[in-house]
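pinging the channel bc i need a second pair of eyes. not urgent but kinda urgent?? the chain im working w is below, pasted from the shared doc
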Amino acid sequence: CSSDLAACGTKSQTESQQESQPKPLTSQDVIEKYSEAVKNVNSFKYTSDFTSKTASKNPESSPLGPINLDSGISKDGVLSSEPFSILTNQTMTLTGTSLKISNYINESNELYTRAGNEPWKKTDSKKTQSEKADVVKKEIYNDKFLDALKNVAGDLKLEEQGENYVLTYSGTDEKFMEVLQQFDRGAGSVVNKLADTKILSLNFKLTIKKSSFEPTEIQFDCETGKNESSLTTKFTGKRTFSEINTAKVTKPEGIK
């Protein structure tokens, strides 16, 4: 304004007040800023749970009798960039039987694996540090999941709760199917069950820190089915993030 004082005086008081007050953020703004924030994450802790339960709509009238199929994938892990190190655990469950696989990668990029409670074994791996880190980073920065979220951003209800932005959706819009399918591509056959089904009900919730636009939790529960099918499937998903850009890996016991 100092260069042109006359021009400064022409703004009305109302205009000046409007300019000094930032526009309230929309759900699209928050999703965009969240997408940018996760690009810069180099270390973090996460937990992830994804379950599906398929059951008969009317077990009494089903020619096959009551059907109950449960499957799930449960993961947790830590990625550290300085010094480089990764520790992940993954448990897959199918109708009561579970298998746990753990991986540890040290700062020399040596890979150790463990099945269940077996001893740790050093395993050959040709992947570089950055390739291994990228696999874990997909938990927090998955461009296909983010693209699917951007596609439904206008349908998300935005609220401020304490230090967080909370974005929610409840309904049956088929647009959300892509969000569900991209939530965990690593869940393989579990996710594939969503193909060719319709959303019968969905509750989706995304919690993002106001200060940094980093995510703290993604959560949903939904029911899907086919019109002609006597079965419905209920899915639940939850992923949490913490210690973003500060996480450190503790070397597991039993590794020399």
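so The first strand starts at residue 44 and ends at 56. and The chain has a mean pLDDT of 87. — does that match what u expected or am i reading it wrong
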